[in-house]
Amino acid sequence: AVVSTQSGHYGREFRDMVSSVGAPSLVDVVSRLYNEYNTKTPQKLKIIDAYLGYIMITGVIQFVYCCLVGTFPFNSFLSGFISTVASFVLGVCLRIQSNPQNTAVFKDITVERAFADFIFAHCVLHLVVLNFIG
User: For the segment 17-50, what is each residue's pLDDT rounded down to a tens digit?
Assistant: First the structure.
């Protein structure tokens, strides 16, 4: 099965990855994703990705705890969960602005400015969260 694309840019790479059955195996896809992530992603973005993974795990733990135990102090649960979601969104914004591939889009924003905006937004977020907890 020959895969044709309009641009033809990814066609050859995809055909090389396709097995004899006609579809790439899951192991091939995951190993290629892992290898390309390790070789092509800068160290700063890997640190931001680790932070995003930590925030996501924290949000999942809070949600599972809410489902199992309940939401007795509802303001506390809501504050914590909103804090994790907003922290994740701010982290994604930082990752997008810090990515060297996006310099054409964010040409007026330096990496230092993006990090300063991230810190300032986090301070405002946590002031709101602490106020909401009461």
Answer: 554 556 888 999 999 999 999 999 999 999 999 9
Cα 20 to its chain centre, rounded Å, is 34
**pLDDT tens per residue across span 88-104:** 999 999 999 999 998 88
The rounded distance, in Å, linking the Cα atoms of 91 and 73 is 27
DSSP-derived letter for residue 23 is S
Say how far apart CA 126 and CA 69 lie, in whole Å: 25
Neighbours of 107 (CB within 10 A): 8
The predicted model scores a pTM of 0.76
Query: How many angstroms separate the CA atoms of 32 and 36, rounded?
Result: 6
Picking from 4-8, 30-34, 93-97, 120-124, which range would have the lowest pLDDT averaged per residue? 4-8
CB neighbour class for 41 (10 Å; exposed up to 12, middle 13-18, buried from 19): middle
Nearest to 52 by CA among 96, 117, 8: 96
Q: Measure the CA–CA gap between 19 and 90, rounded to whole angstroms.
A: 40
**Token pair belonging to 62:** 């809070």
